[in-house]
Known about the structure:
Layout: H1 3-12, H2 25-31, H3 33-44, E1 48-50, H4 65-71, E2 73-75, H5 79-89, H6 109-123, H7 129-134, H8 139-158, H9 163-170, H10 181-191, H11 193-208, H12 216-226, H13 236-249, H14 254-266, H15 274-277, H16 282-287, H17 291-304
Parallel strand pairs: 1-2
Amino acid sequence: MKLVELIRLQRRCHGKERLFDSVGDGYLYVHNPYFRRLRKAALAAGFRFTQRDVNSYFGFPLIHLDSILAEREIPYRPSFTALLHLERTRPGHFELRDLFKNRPAPNYLLHESAHAVAFRALFGAPRDVRAAFAEPAALVRVMLGESYAMTTEYLAACAVEGSVHDWFFSISSYRHRTPKKKAIGELLDELGFAFVARSVLLAFLFNNFLVDQLDRRGFEALLAHAREVGQPEPPPRAREKLRRALNGLMVMSPEFRYDTARLFLGMFGRSRNIRQELARDPLALLDAQPELRGALSRLIAILAG
Length: 305
């Protein structure tokens, strides 16, 4: 595809609730259901998208989640302007393949939107975001927010089809891999969206509590929390398929998870000994706050559409 065609596609996909200046935003809104659902949910939750660099977010995005939530503004860069500039330098010469390695600066709007939506569902609308994050009982809520963002990006990545969609998504998401995509797709059809999506979210929650893989006991506990009231247990073959798929999703760098958690949680008064901070059973922490079950159901319903 020629760059000029990509530019025309950007213009053709623009419309309500889409950001014209962010490359691929309109295309993803039209063609990726999870991107579209989170955009609508973030707007409904009172968040807005801005080119104003809130507290120098782009200098270090990881440390500015509280800024986004407090300001209720999700920053993005005008990356489409850069493509227009490139095309003007030599009209008709550049192609999409020229941009596979040298890409415009990414806008992580899906990830930050998921955080915004999760925060509203899990915390409500506290006056002081930092104080809310620092409360001792808030640890599981904070990690649920990250797990929801990871789940959203995984499902959105699974919905990608074709090279253009893939390229637009590559500059709009932290996730570039979809391990166990086929298995998860089959399980969604067999066991239902809500159950499987909740299972994925809880697997990522274990991951964020520095659990590398689910053992049998942890998996059985996850299943019990993933089922809605009255929902039958999945048959043995599907259970084993789901266990393998979830463990496949959880494979990521332990050092990255450790260092990221230590830095982020340290901002809100947690100990530098992050393994001790995250040593508790996340499902036990969930059980200690029964209202979170309803919040999780609402968050999963947003993904289901």
